[in-house]
Amino acid sequence: MSKQQNTDDQMITLIDENGNEQLFKELFTFDSDDWGKSYIFIYPAEQENDDSVDIQAYAIADNQDGDGEDLVPIEDDKEWDMVEEVLNTFLDNDGNFKA
After folding, report:
1. How far is it, in rounded angstroms, from Cα 26 to Cα 12?
2. Which family does it belong to (predicted)?
3. Of 59, 71, 80, 88, which is the most exposed, with the fewest CB atoms less than 10 Å away?
4. Which residues contact 52 (CB under 8 A, 6 or more apart)?
5. Residues 62/83, Cβ–Cβ less than 8 Å
6. Nearest of 28, 10, 11, 12 to residue 2 by alpha carbon
């Protein structure tokens, strides 16, 4: 999935394989020395004030053209466990965060 960075409040537009665009807000990014990758947590911008949000996690990789970044799904179970642990550390005891 390719991304376009917007300057307003860490907004990201994701473009799927069909060319559809959806606006997301960046929750946070982090680097993992163990996996040698950077990761990003995002959620749909329209859910910002909702009681629950759909947080998505991706690995960040340079795109093939070398002129930007792509968000890559996390498919390895051990890698996903590490990413999930980072998110759980970020969330409070009730599983909430302040957007």
Report:
1. 7
2. Belongs to the UPF0473 family.
3. 88
4. none
5. no
6. 12
- DSSP single-letter state for residue 85: H
Question: In the numeric block, which tokens belong to residue 77?
Answer: 């179970």
- Under DSSP, is residue 36 helix (H, G, I), strand (E, B) or coil? coil
Nearest to 86 by CA among 45, 25, 33, 12: 33
Per-residue model confidence as pLDDT tens digits over 5-57: 544 568 899 888 898 999 999 999 999 999 999 999 999 999 888 878 899 99
- Assigned token pair, 93: 């005891």
Q: Which residue in the block uniquely carries the two structure tokens 């990014």? A: 29
User: Could you tell me the pTM of the whole model?
Assistant: 0.78
